[in-house]
Amino acid sequence: MGKFGLILLVIVVYGVLGGVSVTVTYDSKALVIDGRRRILQSGSVHYPRATPEMWPDIIEKAKEGGLDVIETYVFWNYHEPVKGQYYFEGRFDLVRFVKTVQDAGLFVHLRIGPYACAEWNYGGFPLWLHFIPGIQFRTINGPFQAEMELFVAKIVDLMKEENLFASQGGPIILAQVENEYGNVEWAYGVGGELYVKWAAETALSLNTSVPWVMCSQSDAPDPIINTCNGFYCDTFIPNSPLKPKIWTEDYTGWFLSFGYPVPYRPVEDLAFAVARFFEKGGTFHNYYMYFGGTNFGRTAGGPLVATSYDYDAPINEYGFIRQPKWGHLRDLHMAIKHCEEYLVSGDHVHQSLGINLEADVYYKTGGDCAAFLANYGSSVDANVTFKGKLYFLPAWSVSVLPDCKKVIFNTAKVVAQKSIGDAKSAPGTGGVNELSLSTSPWSWYIEKVGVWSNESFTETSLLEQISTTKDTSDFLWYSTSIEADEKKDAFLLIQSLGHAALVFLNQKVLALGYGYHDDASFNISEKISLEQGNNTLDIISMLIGVQNYGPWFDVMGAGIYSVILADLKNTKKDYLSNKWTYQVGTEGESLGLDRTDLANSSLWTQGAYLPINQSLIWYKSTFMDPKGKGPISLNLASMGKGQAWVNGQSIGRYWSTYLSPSTGCTDHCDYRGTYDAQKCQKKCGQPAQVLYHVPRTWVHAGENLLVLHEEIGGDPSKISVLTQTGQAVCGHVSEDDSIPVDLWKPNSDSTSQNPQIRLTCDQGWKITSVRFASFGNPKGDCGAFTYGSCHTDALSVVQQVLLFVCIIQQHRQTSIWLS
């Protein structure tokens, strides 16, 4: 198999010198940091979607992946939950997060907004804002502008107090005001145009000493930089020739919604999009998301955004590196770094090489150059001649030549290792330990249907839900009476703005209705049997995240808006103006059944027979802390719809019975051709999510409390706790692969640089065994290789290298290089 050896990998990342003042400006070529134009790779990491204990590892992995910048939104609704009362603790400790990034030697792009979208509840706006008299969001409106200016100033002042802007020696080199407003500006008319100018002026008046950006905002006034969001931004042109070409959101996948398949984006297409951006003069690029994380509690936006925000990102929801996406992009970042001095100062020349074939060349004085060769056709591979040499270009690919001679990276040629294992059951990849709770002692509490306290109130109209609950709860009870002069059958028609509702007639479950992420409204039509006299109708309307996107999204309502009863003679009665009694929230919420101090309360019932498949019931049990340090998840496949808590911490909403459509999925999506969020999907006919992340720091030694609020019916005895016990990785390399980007040196002889494979584990994991190794023509794919017709047994040699690595291991990760 040739030679084996251990090669230490060095990734050069230009970082932040803590405490050293840095000037940040820009020109048409790039951001200029202390007088030097920079090509910058950035990644979105949202601090509340992980725990503070997870932040350092995630950021370090981002740095190892070749990032220079960490980008995050700021989430107004959790920083100011009550007007004038601020919160910056725990997962919302923004200062700690920014300083953690600084400690890693990376820059920060702080997207203050304060509108975030981000599939976050109400787009990041606090609900109390909605109730200020005369307010209109995101337009020229005095009450809104006053509150927005106060909060943006609060965040800027907080960063200044901690010396976190670049001019103060901090890591913040960019700030953003507003967010994707250009997508909806048309809906606000002249008020929208004036609002854009006001937002820009307000941001500039705060004297941050760093440039401000507005994403998806073609009319961003100077000196605000307008930037691009989308799956591809190579054709984007800033609105001024004096501004650099910045890509603030390159979607690594897409967000997950209940009732939908799981979207994913092939790394070949993602790398193609990034390479094309820099080929066409891009200077600053950000992955949305680089780490997606988890929508803990009720933070998920609406409607029906799932708890997992994994986003098919290079670092998965549990903090593991996702291969080959992380590794392939890391190699791309290094290849582009080799071209940096040409991209930021060279003269650009475009050259056609044929149909859908082109070269973009960046020259410096003396004729030195870097080049990108692109085949942007979606089906036909090609051979092209460039500067007298022949190059092979797969369809939908870009090759990077830092010296205009040697290809050190091609976006369609993935040589990074792959993660293998049972991704359906494991938090990460590889081995998993599963602890069943079937023998655990369970307790329960059955809630009352309808009005349950003297805090209820009565109206002769159907109330909009969000304005009534003020989002203090997902739930609003609508209760009324139906009088029947005799026992008879009828039809009940209920119409709702969303998002779900459970209907009871005479205290018995009648129907469940629900909407979709793209259209949360729904109807319920049921034939019912009325008793003579008084019949009770109780409807519990359920929110699944408040709307977070769209023009005037802040006034989009939810809840029941029509109830009609029709008898078999087609005589209809409208109950719109009937006497309705309302109850905000559920009885269990009011009692605080999720709290740890009620774990031993007499409120809970325990018996020989656990009630299952029952609506509006709370369950309680305990589990022992899983051994090891691997991430933990709850398998809630046996449950219906509800919310879960571990030791009083909300893991988020679950909805295991809402299955995605049975068609439209593929596990092997063709990366060639334009990508969109529906192109590549998996898990059709299955729940969007059954595994729910439980951060290690939320679990303590010994017994841990698990509480669930089940809304529609499930079986808690089938719940299990999963923990990671191992990882399995695989790599494959051919003799005709590109020069390893780590080893490429200008003017070097490519014949001396053999194709190499790198195998590495996450922090805290060591390579302990090798299952398969072959030098020849093995068949199959990672996890299912078999020996081919030409085969040299390389297993013993690889094991010897592995033993050597394990003996001398002193580094953060276990890595072996084979060539």
Please provide a brief summary of the model.
This protein is α+β, with helices and mostly antiparallel strands and 819 residues long. It has an eight-stranded parallel β-barrel with strand order 5-6-7-8-9-10-11-13, surrounded by four helices. Strands 24-33-25-30-27-28 form a six-stranded antiparallel sheet.
User: What's the CATH H-level homologous superfamily of one domain?
Assistant: Galactose-binding domain-like
The stretches of 5 or more residues where confidence is low (pLDDT under 50) are 1-15, 807-817
Given the C-alpha coordinates, what overall shape results? Answer: globular
Reading side by side through the largest sheet, how are the strands ordered? 5-6-7-8-9-10-11-13
- Share of β-strand residues: 25-35%
Name of the CATH first level of one domain: Mainly Beta
Summarize the structure in words:
The protein has about 800 residues and is α+β, with helices and mostly antiparallel strands. Among the domains are: about 430-445 and about 590-730, Galactose-binding domain-like (Jelly Rolls, Sandwich); about 455-585, Jelly Rolls (Sandwich); about 735-819, no CATH class. The strands form 12 sheets. Strands 5-6-7-8-9-10-11-13 form an 8-stranded parallel β-barrel, surrounded by 4 helices. Helix 6 packs parallel to helix 7. It is globular. The model is unreliable at about 1-15 and about 805-815 (pLDDT under 50).
